Every structure is written in structure tokens, then in C-alpha cells.
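1st attempt posting a full record on here, be nice pls
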Amino acid sequence: MGRTPALVCPALLLLLAGPVAAQRVETGFLDRTVTMAGQRHRYQVYVPAEYSAATTWPVILFLHGAGERGTDGLLQTSVGLAPAIRSAPDRYPAIVVMPQVPPDSLWSGTPAEVALIALRQTMDEFTVDPDRVYLTGLSMGGHGTWYLAYRNPDLFAAVVPICGWIPDVPRFRGSVPVVPADSGPPLPALARRLARTPIWIFHGEMDPVVPVSGSREPAAALKAVSGDVRYTEFLGLGHNSWDATYGSDAFTRWLFAQRRR
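the predicted structure (as C-alpha cells):
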């Protein structure tokens, strides 16, 4: 004789499904906002499809270039790190925070503060490893990377400026100095402050926008104090040195191996 199927109470099914539904986390590129001084600032957070709160994840703060400035909270995902993630998501098993600078602004002052608030909000929202927080940016964001790293030397496990600069360059003349004027000559001061931070600097040899000296000089200053620095100059390459950087397996292996000291 066949057995009569057991009846399951619909309410019980809802109770059983509840914890599973509660564990689901939205992944991919997510819209987020920061409110500062009564003003909302949009940004994006990338969450890998494999994300689970049961393990801790590294975090990358990415600073875009001048061409991606705006208020839509999206344009900064069109160049640099986000396209590299879309192309090869397995290469970036990390939470990635992508704030945006308003038009005619730079990565200093309020935009820099918003970037740090967005980073902290993300670290509160997701399960992350505070000893594996990384900072990178390209062009104007490369300058911003130096700016934020100098002011937060104990926050980041590794810093990756791409085609950035320390002293003014003609195209961005008047940018806020990375090193405050009362700290002495900027390059030695920067080298002293960041000597223990793992740093990998990238630049194109033929860059027509930001002179390659913008990266050669801080690399030399860091090497002079035995800093933990690597420098890669792409021979024959122009301004776009970020695609080669973010598309490199050697780079990501190095990055995710770094831990805050």
C-alpha cells in the first residue's frame, strides 16, 4: 500500500523560509548615498556574487579621474576598476567602494571626506577585514590616492596610485597639496610618512596628461628611505595605464596579499 503524503502547514513553510530569505544579500553594483552637511552624495558599492557574511572580505576604495566627475553616482563605474571587474570578476574577490567627485572639484576637502564616510558606511554594512583595506585611484584619483594616504597612514593595507602626482602639474594647477606646506619639502615628508605602507605606483612612459615625473619622483623618494614601494612604468604607453594595471593578475595577487601592519 502506498503511504499518504504528509501534509505540511503553509505557515510552517513560511517560518522555515524566513531565515533563508533573511540571509540573502544583494550583490553586483549597488546604489548608495552619503549625507554630509545636509547634502546627499551618490556612490556605488560592488559586492561579489559569492559574498557571504560568514567570512570577512577585503575592501578597495577606488578614486576615479577627472572625466568621471558628476552627481549621478554612476559615471565613475565607466572607467578604471569597475570595467576590470566586469571583465574578470574572479580577479577581484572584494567589496569595492566607488565614490564620485562633483563637477569642477578634486579629491580633497569635502569629496575626500565623503569618500572616507562611504568607506566607513560600507565597512559597517558588510562583513569586511579591517586589516585588508586598500586604496587606489587613477589620474586625478591618483593624486587623491596620495592625498588620502598621507592623511590616513594607518588606515590602508596597501596604496596604488596610477598616473598620479604630488606637486602641481599644469593641467591640474591649483590642486590642494598632498603634503601641507608646514610639513617641509613635500616628497621627503611623504616618504617619511608612508615608508611602512606597501605602495605600488604605475605610470605610462609617454603620458601627455600627467608627466611621468609625477610618479617617478615619489617612487624615488620612497626608495631613498627604504620604503615598501614598487614602481612600474609602461614603456610607450600614454595616459591610460589603468587598464594594464587593473587587468594584471600579478597586481591583484600582490594587492590581496597585503595586510595592515
